[in-house]
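--- STAGE predict ---
source: upstream dedup step, 1 unique chain passed
mode: sequence only
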Amino acid sequence: MTWQRWHRKGLITALDIGSSKVSAMIAQKGDGGELIVLGTGQRESRGVKRGYIADMATTEAAVREAVEQAERIAGINIENVWVGFSAGGLVSDVAEVEFELGGHRVEQQDIDALLAAGRNSIDPQGRMVLHAQPALYTLDGLTGGEDTAWAARGSAWCAHPCRRRGRITGA
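--- STAGE serialize ---
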């Protein structure tokens, strides 16, 4: 089935690869927008240990078995699938930064300086930073959303969450 035909039929196929099990689901969007599950499959996750693929061949076999079971139940052969994989070893942190504004109105350069301070405050601890973005701004303890035209008296603060993965080691 081509991508266009697959999309037109409203099929949604999902695969979740975990350390304990591999799950597959084939669903179709109903006329009212509801999801109708057509088939599911589950297999013991062989080859994945603590979120890492330890044995590719056995992981592949578990994935194939779960997908084949879902296809048999649904009576459909799939060609496209959304895959979820937790990828062990991820660490999430929140870096908080604060600086004095000196009583002037918040300008774009203040926001840029706050974001730069947030990025610079992230200590990767030998890991690679995969994702970092501002999550919350406050001004004098009040949240302000994304409006940069706040009047300022005291200090601005930003929570800057980041995700890190893996250790970088030198040879």
